[in-house]
Amino acid sequence: MGRLQALTLWIFQVLTSYICPSLSSDILTETSPRVFQESGDIYSPNYPNSYPKSNFTEWKLQVPKGYRLQLVFNHFDLEPSYRCLLDYVQVMHNDDVLGSFCGQEDSMSGIHPGNQRILSPDNTMKIIFKSDDFQEEAHQGFHAHYQIMAGPACRVRWRDDYLRWHFDTEECSEPVEKEENELSCSSFCQSGRLSCACQLGYSLKQQGQSCQSLCNAENSSETEGVIMSPGYPKPYPPNISCNYSLKLEKGLLLIITFLDVSEVGTFSGRSCDSDHLQILVHGRKPQTFCGQDHPERIVTGSNRVDILFNTDQSGVSRGWKIKYYVELISCPTLKPVLNGNIIPEWMQYYYGQSIQVNCRTGYIMKENGKVISEFYSSCQNDGTWQRSLPQCEAVDCGEPDDVDNAIMNFNETTFKASVSYQCKENFKMANSIESVAHCEADGFWKISDLKNELPQCIPVCGKSNYAAYVQRIFGGRRANEGNFPWQVFFMEPRAGGALISDQWVLTTAHVAEMETLKMYAGRINTNGPKGVELHVAEKIIHPNYHLSSSKPQYNYDNDIALIKLEEKVKLGAHISPICLPKNKQSDEVQNGKLGLIAGWGITEERRLSQNLMYAEIPVVNMDFCKSVKPKSSKVKPENFIFTENMFCAGMSGRDSCQGDTGGAFAVPDRNTGDYHIEGIISWGIGCGSYGVYTKVANYLEWIKNITTQS
User: Fold this and answer.
1) Is 133 annotated as a binding residue?
2) d(C-alpha 82, C-alpha 326), whole Å
3) Is residue 617 helix, strand or coil?
4) What is the SS3 string spanning 242-289?
5) What pLDDT shows up at residue 400?
6) pLDDT at 530 over 60
7) GO molecular function, one example (predicted)?
8) Which residue, 18, 214, 206, 38, is CA-closest to 114?
9) Of 90, 78, 77, nearest in space to 128 by CA
10) I need a labelling partner for 262 at 20 to 30 A (CA). Which of 183, 377, 559, 670 fits?
11) What is the spatial distance between Cα 679 and Cα 580, in angstroms, rounded to a whole number?
12) How far is 672 from 590, CA to CA, in rounded Å?
């Protein structure tokens, strides 16, 4: 640089120090005043770490009169929210909001400041930062840079020859050639930088010496804002054509309100020939306004709106100021779901809101005919629901299972339907269980909420057409049909047994252990009608019974066995089971108790009977059985084993004998007259006096476990 240029620059610096106010004044901030230089930085609390919750911080900036403040955000990361209602930064001048910001550069909601420059109308500016008490995720906050911008009085122009400085106190006194949308008198010098800046709403042209209106702008992220005519509230410039394009995401509907229309050109009749403002919504006829004619509110029903502003050369007017914001598009009102609930249930739903559908107890959810476990749907950005509502259909339990030996009646099979069961003849409900089952919410037929089971029809037991009468105390009598309907005739080996249900036979272990078992039910004569032949499916001998390899056998402890039949026998008047003892205590064997025995064993004539014979004998003290004298000298009575699982019964001339083994010692119930099996004919030292019987009451638990599980 030559001496002349250096001298000129020195003179310029000296003169500007007098023309422009001093920059050494303090700037007021929230914490304490500090010496303000040409520029500075403001950071959110804890920056660059995440800012705290529930915070309110305020910065007040003030510079000498004649200057302005320009603020630019270099980094901005706040929690996004609709209309910045949660965390936000506000830039204010007195009570006017110059900008309210939140979100991030790539956020779909919120209002991000971007790289726009915010210029204060005069020498003061206030920045407010606020965070709420909830943070879903961490955000860094912001870093803002501010600097002083000089006012029109210190306008400095740098001439092309670099030799002459021109200080303008009246900026527009010298005509400057203008291009379209160019405002030559709107720039301001930056102290000591020999460059120009523009007021808010204008941008510096490429040549760096004049400003042009920023009235061609596009917004695709801010859901709320204010748009003004260039220079508002001062008169707008002539010869401009502005297009403010709002293109927000689908699902947002723009609402426009007119905050002020001081004047837009002149109004002539019903046409706007000169300056005018137009609102363009896709698919609709444009709305044109001029003068002071305008509606209070325009509901566009669209997410895309163009605001056109055109002026001519015929003078200027004060302009206009409008505000825009969004409402969410709504989805059709939902009809109630029959037998179901919509959560949440509102009168109106808007874009982004979701619902859940639950079916009531006893109903299942179906979508397009398929069962689904859950249902969610969202209101979409085109105003339609993501999924159509499902149906809640009643649980179907299906046709109820058949209950053996029962007749069922039902009409429906869905939730809360009922089915009633009636036991067939010769059967009754087990344990007085209710005879009605209901279709429950889990899809099962149940007698009650706690029992996943159906009724049981068990055979009527212990019925006999035997009529007791006084008989002489010797021998036996011939039985008639129906006297002993539980009696089972073992042809091979010659023995007896007792039906305890329609599928189980109770007999002695030493009979059941035989390899071949040929049995009949409903038979009273070996040469007469055969009755019903029974076939063995399974034999279960008591695990504590031990057959002796030596002869004779002296130990018959636990002489009891169960035989399961391949098919259930059809019950009737001549074939029905005998009852089991109710419990061990109630059926304790007592001396003198009378019981009926029956069989096809050896008679007094020392031959096997062809007819079913019976006798009534009493229970006696075990000593009577121990005192019986064997007819064979090879049998030693002292070797026989007597246990608590046995009892003794009989009398002189009346007893069971070979061929009767396995038959029942039947005792009638005092209240009902039904017979139960108190003992099983097991063994004896000799025939015609006393015999030993297996005490059935001692094996009740074993019998019930096997017959209910097999």
Assistant:
1) no
2) 9
3) strand
4) EEEEEECCCCEEEEEEEEEEEEECCCECCECCCCEEEEEECCCCCEEE
5) 87
6) yes
7) serine-type endopeptidase activity
8) 214
9) 90
10) 183
11) 10
12) 20
User: How far apart are the C-alpha atoms of 575 and 489, rounded to whole Å?
Assistant: 12
pLDDT attached to residue 451: 59
Is pLDDT at 174 greater than 50 in this prediction?
A: no
What single-letter amino acid sits at 645? N
Q: Which residue has the higher pLDDT, 619 or 456?
A: 619
CA pair distance 79, 131, nearest whole angstrom: 9
d(CA 124, CA 74): 21
Strand partners, 651: 654
Q: How far is CA 216 from the centre of its chain?
A: 51
Instruction: Flag whether 179 is marked binding.
Output: no
Instruction: For residue 426, give the nearest of 455, 459, 463 by alpha carbon.
Output: 459
CB 531 within 8 A of CB 487: no
Whether residue 405 contacts residue 568, with contact meaning beta carbons closer than 8 Å, is answered with no
Distance, in Å, from the CA atom of 492 to the CA atom of 518, rounded to the nearest integer, reads: 5
Q: Is 669 annotated as a binding residue?
A: no
> Is there a binding annotation on residue 132?
yes
- Whole-model pTM: value is 0.49
Number of other residues whose CB lies within 10 A of the CB of residue 654: 22
C-alpha distances out from residue 184 to 118, 172, 175, 689, Å: 20, 8, 9, 143
3-state secondary structure 169-215: CCHHHCCCCCCCCEECCCEEEECCCCEEEECCCEEECCCCCCEEECC
Give me the mean pLDDT over the 668-695 stretch. 89
Percent share of the chain, pLDDT over 70: 77
Instruction: Check whether 24 has a pLDDT greater than 60.
Output: no
E-strand spans in 290-387?
297-299, 304-310, 319-328, 330-331, 340-343, 349-350, 354-359, 363-367, 370-372, 376-378
Two tokens at 328? 């969410």
Check the annotation: does 306 bind a ligand: no
CA dihedral of 327, 328, 333, 339, whole degrees rounded to 10: -130
Give the bridge partners for 647, in sequence order. Answer: 693
CA 146 to chain centre: 53
* 382 appears as a binding residue in the annotation: no
Distance CA 394, CA 396 (A): 6
- The whole-angstrom separation of Cα 396 and Cα 445 is 10
Q: What is the CA radius of gyration of the chain?
A: 55
Q: Is 587 annotated as a binding residue?
A: no
Tokens read off for 574: 């001549």
Q: Give the tens place of pLDDT for each residue, 502-529.
A: 999 999 999 999 989 999 999 988 887 8
The answer to whether the annotation marks 605 as part of a ligand binding site is: no
Kindly state the tokens that stand for 122: 């005069």
Could you give the 3-state DSSP secondary structure of residue 673? coil
